[in-house]
Every structure is written in C-alpha cells, then in structure tokens.
Amino acid sequence: MVLVSETIKSQSKKVCVIGAGPSGLVSARELKKEGHKVVVMEQNDDVGGQWLYQPNVEEEDPLGKTKALKVHSSIYSSLRLVSPREVMGFSDFPFTAKEGRDTRRFPGHEELWLYLKDFCEVFGLRELIRFNARVEFVGMVNDDNMKRWMVKSVEKKTGEVIEEVFDAVVVASGHYSYPRLPSIKGMDLWKRKQLHSHVYRVPDPFRDEVVVVVGCSMSGQDISIELVEVAKEVHLSAKSLDVPPGLSKVISKHHNFHLHLEIESLEEDGRVIFVDGSCIVADTILYCTGYWYKFPFLESKGRVEVDDNRVGPLFEHTFSPFLSPSLSFVGIPRKLIGFPFFESQAKWISKLLSGKTSLPSFDEMMQSISEFYLAREAAGIPKRNTHDICDFNYCDKYADYIGFPHLEEWRKELCMSALLNSIENLDTYRDSWDDDDLLQETLQNPYFTQLTTP
Fold first, then answer.
1. How far apart are CA 344 and CA 429, in angstroms?
2. 161: helix, strand or coil
3. How many angstroms separate the CA atoms of 91 and 332, rounded?
4. Helix, strand, or coil here: 259?
5. How confident is the model over 38-48, as pLDDT tens digits?
6. Helix (H, G, I), strand (E, B), or coil: what is residue 369?
C-alpha cells in the first residue's frame, strides 16, 4: 500500500482532462479540490459522454468503419439502467429520485444524464470545460525529461486549432464508441443492410423485416426484445445455445424470436448460414458485438498501446509505468460499480500530481502488471477481456492505495440482487424485484438521509 501524507505542501499542476463524461467530471472535481488548474476538453456541446443521447446518426458509417467517428454516444432511445440507481452514485452525491423527473428505480438514460448535469452544477465544473473542443493530438514535449504534454484541439464550430502545454493529461474519453465487428465469411459481399448497435436508436426502421442480431450481450438481448415487437422475425446469434433462463423465457413467449449459434457465412443472395448448417434469408444484420478501446489522439511513442483490446501496460488499469504520473487513464475497467471506482481513480491521480503520495517503482509496477496478465491467462480469460473486473474485492484493494472507503455492503448486495434478478427475469427485472426489504433498509443509511442532492 502507498501511504498518503496530508502534511506535504500541495503542488499545483496544469492538467488537461479529455472527456466530460462520468469519469472526466469526477476527475475534474478531484483535481480542482486538490488545487490543480484544470481544463476539460469535451468534443460535444454538453456534459455526459455516453449519457448525452445523440438521436441523429445518419452521417455515421453504419459499421463505424471511418477513421473518425461523428457520433460519440452509443445509447439507444429506450435504454434503461441495468443497475439500480441506489448503487450508482458517487460517494458524496447519491443518485436519488427527484420530483418531476424519471423516478423509477432503473430509470432511462436521460435521468442519469441529468444526474451528471446536477453533479457538474453543484461542484462548479462547467467553468472548467471547453465544449465543442475535439482533441486531435496528445504527445510528449521534448524538454528536459519533465514529461509535459502538448495537447492540440480543434474548435468544432470555427475550425480553430489550439495548441497548449500541460503538466499532466487524464484520458477519460470512454470506450463505448468504436464498433468492434466479428470476422464473418462473406461479410463484405453481403448486399443487404448491416449495422452495428452503435448507430441503433429506435426499432421502427426494422418493421416487418427479418433481422439477425449478432451477440448475446445485454444490449443484444435488450435490442432483440425491442425488435421482436415490430420485426417479422428476430434471429439472435449467440456463441452458445445455453443462455440465461430469463432470455429463454422471453424467446418462448414470441413465435418470431429464434436463437441460433454463430454465423458460418453470409451469402450474396441474402442467406445467413449458421455453423449448425441452418439457414435463413435476412433483410438486416445488427452487430451487438462490443467496442474497441481507441485513443486516436494519443502519441505515446509505443509506451501505451492497445493490443486485442488490452490497453497497456497500465498499472492498476490507470498508470503507464513509463509516463506516470503525468499520463493517466480513468474509466477503463468494465464490469464493476463504475462511478465510485472512477472517483477512487480520480482521487489517486489528484494526490499523486500534488505530491501527497507516490507510486511504486517502475520495476514494481511492471512486475505487478506481468503478474496480473499471467493470472488472467491462467484463469482462461481472453486478452480482449483484460479490463473486465467482475470483482468487488478488486475495487476495495484499489481503494486502499489512496485510503478511499471500501464499497458499502449494501451497494454490493443490491448490485448482486439486481444481477441475479436480471438472469432469471430479463424482461421484468427493472420493474419488479424481491429485495425490497434490503432496499428500504439501505435507504435509511446516512448516505441517503444525510447527503442530499439539490
């Protein structure tokens, strides 16, 4: 564990935060609290990152094959949270229901966006943000090994290019924007409609179509359930026919909802051939196959690279041993309770930059990374899933680096309760649950009774 000393006089740094989504906003707040001069670069015209819904996707390549994306958010119109609102708030800013807004326990995406706007307002973050500023280049400045960074941004409306030097850069640009596509024989020759869920917004364009949904992720399941109400047929292609009971129940309720194994090939006449030899003729293929980590603006001279969706080498998914602490990443880990974890990352980075704590040596960090990779490999976890955590204990271990509180037991219990309910009752878990006693007890916790959002 790295000890934090509060007696050391704080050093103020000029820090660029890339992105004004959840991880960027909490990073800005923690850096500001530590006395750093913060500039947040945000390519859109408001805060929220993924949670800033972008309904107009006409200009985006349907498979996201262009070098630069025009649309950042991959959120679709009907999307609701998969975790209950109680577990999602930052440590001092509960995500409570507000009169006149979406008060559901699993609200729609707009409610979380409004929560982030509230967070921004309460902590005075908006004044730190440059909107419509797209970061084009981040690279090291060659001056006496000080590890400072040149950041080049473009003002989207005027085209003005601004170059500035910062003491540190925090990358909080998200990882749900760049479509990850499978490699399927005949994919490039298939003449009919193909798109990635990145550009899916509403089901109506697929009315009366035969649609193949590739990928059995939460979005693949959600979108299939939505499409089955308007499409002629929905064929969900998964790696295994052994799917969660909740999905099986939904499929059994619909005569036009079918489950298949993976696709063997796509034929020019519109046929989709599955690996078991079965075949259908489809109008549309919708890929719900995930996203790539990409940092097209970052020139690290090979010190941070993305290899099969592993960003590395990074110590604790946050720091490059070669470039720390002046370059850091917030929000890379997946499959954890995100907001409190992002907050712990932001606190660690902020105190490192102010000189109140330090990282292990270069060799120790590299050794830790190597051991982590070997442990993942031994557990049979593919490289592309390096950053899928799925472990509350990891969040607590991470918190110990900076003295951040461990995840509360009620957060863990409510999260697991919702997850188990979703596995059994996929189409109803957001509106019907059996952990009400735990919920009512949780809502009496001082976190909810003593801390209030405006």
1. 29
2. strand
3. 19
4. strand
5. 999 999 999 99
6. helix
